[in-house]
Design brief:
Layout lengths: L1 H14 L7 H4 L7 H14 L3 H16 L5 H12 L5 H44 L3 H29 L3 H15 L5 H18 L1 H4 L2 H11 L18 H26 L4 H15 L4 H15 L5 H12 L8 H16 L4 H33 L4 H30 L10 H16 L4 H18 L1
Helix pairs in contact: 3-6, 4-6, 4-7, 5-6, 5-17, 5-18, 6-16, 6-17, 7-18, 7-19, 7-20, 8-9, 8-18, 9-18, 12-13, 12-17, 13-14, 13-17, 15-16, 16-17, 19-20
Subcellular location: Cell membrane
Protein name: Chromate efflux transporter
Organism: Duganella qianjiadongensis
């Protein structure tokens, strides 16, 4: 009798396209301590190269596949919410998962450590850049890292697309998003809005195609039971309460008012630091679509309106931002440092101190809204996990993001491999580095930080001998 039941159970698993899980993954892992999580978030902040696509892929690989702290279905649900927010979605996703695991302090620590290594590194590099100009050593390292970044984004498009585009409907949304941003140059918020509408309509007319349930079941075949699994109820701190929502919103407003009020009272509204705080607050709240939607706004304001930087300086800052760990929007630290550094020199003030203070301030005003969005909205998101009317639009958004990431990989590849434009020659050395990095990441699944270090050394050797 027991044998018959076992055979029946095996046939049911086969019909569902699943395989029996190893004993090691049949049970969820032990809950990580707060300090274990702190060590992971610090490591992630140090190795999170490749922009939001690469960072999200890194978190998926570690948190979903390897550590199994969260299931893929819960991971994607949180990611979809972060994609709809203004600000850096990868940093917001880290904040969300940290909050889900270890309450408010876990979310704050995860979000801060995600950007802290990048902030420190960019302040140092910005000082070297402003004080000493172009460094051959830095140029060589960047030469090798840029093709590796292209390969990282390509790998991210492959990984996210492989687990997201489960049917022809979602493939169609991804393809339409690629055409819209590559050929039609539609703004990212419009693409996201249309994808959400397509997901909503699909959820009504083709609910099976836009439901995440089937996909979540397939994931368990590969990764096993997760600590925060598909059916794990939200912990007590993740349940919605009006009192908690009002407390988070009031705290966020106070944390913005205190430094902004101090700057206005001590320095005046027209002072550079006060204007930087106001400008980057607007950038954090009004620009949707991640760093690549924020950058045109920052470029126009910092160069055209305020004159904090020259166009060439902004492009150098983008190169540093794209090739250092952390979210690409950390380029705001470069903008703040160099802008304040130049004005401090003209006023005979300690330029390095002015630049450091400006970098810290603009980082504060840029990222504060992201923490508030997650800590305030997280309980609402957790309460809607099984509501197809809300999850189907988010599924459509995820499919569209795959198309946008593919466009990003193409954009990076074009600018890295043809640095002199379409009429210039192909950079064979950069192409070789990109191919090697792509093979190492996609075929052999090497760690991103190892590939980055290897490619940086190759770039350094290239600059030394050529």
């Amino acid at each position: 009798m027991a044998q018959q039941e076992q055979q029946s159970h095996s046939r049911q698993e086969a019909s569902a396209g699943q395989q029996a899980l190893p004993v090691a993954t049949a049970l969820p892992p032990a809950a990580p301590s707060f300090w274990q999580a702190v060590r992971y978030w610090w490591l992630l902040g140090c190795i999170s190269f490749g922009g939001p696509a690469g960072q999200i892929a890194l978190m998926h690989q570690e948190l979903v596949e390897r550590r199994r702290w969260i299931s893929e279905r819960r991971f994607l649900h949180a990611l979809n919410y972060c994609m709809t927010l203004p600000g850096p979605e990868a940093q917001q996703l880290a904040t969300y998962i940290g909050w889900l695991l270890h309450r408010t302090r876990g979310g704050v620590v995860a979000g801060v450590l995600f950007v802290l290594p990048s902030l420190v590194l960019l302040i140092v590099l910005s000082w070297l850049y402003a004080a000493y100009g172009q460094l051959p050593l830095l140029a060589g390292l960047l030469y090798g890292i840029k093709p590796a970044v292209t390969a990282i984004v390509l790998q991210a498009a492959h990984r996210i697309g492989k687990r997201t585009l489960r049917n022809g409907w979602l493939w169609s949304i991804a393809a339409a998003a690629f055409v819209a941003i590559f050929a039609l140059h539609w703004p990212f918020p419009l693409i996201i809005g249309l994808a959400a509408l397509a997901g909503y309509a699909g959820g009504r007319w083709r609910p099976a195609a836009f439901s995440m349930a089937g996909h979540g079941a397939a994931v368990q075949q590969h990764y096993g039971a997760a600590l925060v699994d598909d059916d794990t109820p939200p912990p007590a701190h993740a349940r919605f309460r009006w009192s908690r929502l009002l407390l988070v919103l009031a705290s966020g407003l106070l944390l913005w008012l205190l430094p902004m009020g101090a700057l206005t009272l001590l320095l005046g509204w027209q002072h550079t630091l006060t204007q930087m705080g106001w400008f980057f607050t607007k950038a954090a709240l009004l620009t949707f679509g991640g760093a690549y939607a924020v950058l045109p706004y920052v470029y126009q304001g910092a160069i055209v309106h305020y004159g904090w930087l020259q166009p060439a300086q902004m492009m150098d800052g983008l190169a540093l931002g794209e090739t250092t760990p952390g979210p690409l929007i950390m380029v705001v630290a470069f903008v703040g440092f160099v802008g304040a550094y130049g004005q401090a020199l003209a006023a005979a003030q300690p330029a390095w101190l002015a630049g450091t203070v400006a970098a810290l301030l603009v980082t504060w005003f840029t990222f504060l809204p992201s923490f508030i969005f997650i800590l305030a909205g997280g309980p609402l998101v957790e309460a809607t996990r099984d509501d197809l009317k809300l999850t189907a639009p988010l599924t459509g958004i995820t499919a569209a993001v795959v198309g946008v990431i593919a466009n990003l990989a193409l954009f990076f590849g074009y600018n890295v491999l043809w640095p002199q434009g379409p009429t210039g020659p192909l950079d064979l050395a950069a192409a070789g580095i990109a191919i090697v990095a792509a093979i190492a990441l996609i075929r052999y699944q090497q760690k991103v930080h190892k590939v980055i270090i290897f490619c940086a050394l190759i770039g350094l050797l290239h600059g030394y001998f050529l």
